[in-house]
Write a structure and sequence with these properties.
Elements (H helix, E strand, L loop, with lengths): L3 E6 L6 H11 L2 E6 L10 E4 L19 H11 L4 E4 L1 H8 L6 E3 L7 E9 L15 E8 L3 E3 L2 H9 L3 E5 L11 E5 L5 E4 L18 H13 L2
């Protein structure tokens, strides 16, 4: 049986094609999901990819949370469906309330585009089980609003509950609090991160193929529940 993983497209989404390719490279079936359609088409997991949904008007991800498809995603996530938000997708998940905190302008107000080392802090999520805890992976980072912030109490909660999934290694590029590059929900099923694992799936075109680990992980998660 092949897992069916949905990839959402909003107006302004840039990385849906790459995310779908990563899904296929992992051995799963990529299912196109449209922002204006609340039908998730029976998928087993959802990827909210990067880009500039709705032009990032008002605030990155602030409009996308009202899309019909996101109402269905929020409902499905509440029932345990694995959801991954990448870059703008991470912003959408925070705006939708599926993950806490917010992503704000990078320190220095510059757009950052570079290959970035990440440390895997939590390998027990639906999207990170293929990694060793403490492993370092190399994936591209490209964002202008990638600085993760939250209240002191929420940061303490995330740290204490092991919900920091990825941290920046070798220097914090955007001054994210606690060097946070990615976090997860309390049930470990929803993960958001700013760097782009879907751009690190083949050694020929990416800095590595480390990003495939996230997609292999959710494939394991889905097939284990069949």
């Amino acid at each position: 049986m092949s897992a069916r993983i949905g990839v959402i497209t909003f107006p302004g989404t840039l990385d849906d094609v790459d995310a779908a390719r990563a899904v296929r490279l992992s051995g799963a079936e990529a299912i196109e999901l449209w922002h204006g359609d609340d039908d998730l088409k029976g998928v087993d997991a959802v990827v909210v990819p990067g880009g500039f949904s709705y032009g990032d008007y008002l605030r990155a991800g602030a409009i996308a949370k009202f899309a019909p498809v996101m109402r269905s995603v929020v409902d499905a996530a509440g029932k345990g469906m694995p959801v991954l938000g990448i870059c703008n997708g991470f912003q959408v998940l925070c705006e939708s309330g599926l993950l806490p905190g917010a992503l704000t302008r990078n320190e220095g107000l510059h757009f950052i585009c570079r290959d970035q080392w990440l440390k895997v802090e939590n390998n027990t999520t639906a999207w990170t089980s293929r990694f060793d805890a403490g492993a370092e992976i190399l994936v591209p980072l490209k964002s202008g609003e990638g600085r993760y912030v939250a209240s002191d109490a929420k940061l303490e909660e995330l740290k204490g509950e092991g919900r920091i999934v990825f941290s920046y290694a070798g220097g914090n590029p955007n001054a994210s609090q606690l060097d946070i590059a990615g976090i997860c929900s309390a049930n470990n099923r929803v993960v958001g991160l700013m760097p782009h694992p879907e751009h690190a799936t083949e050694a020929l075109t990416g800095p590595s193929d480390d990003g495939l680990g996230l997609f292999y992980s959710v494939l394991d998660t889905v097939l284990a529940n069949v």
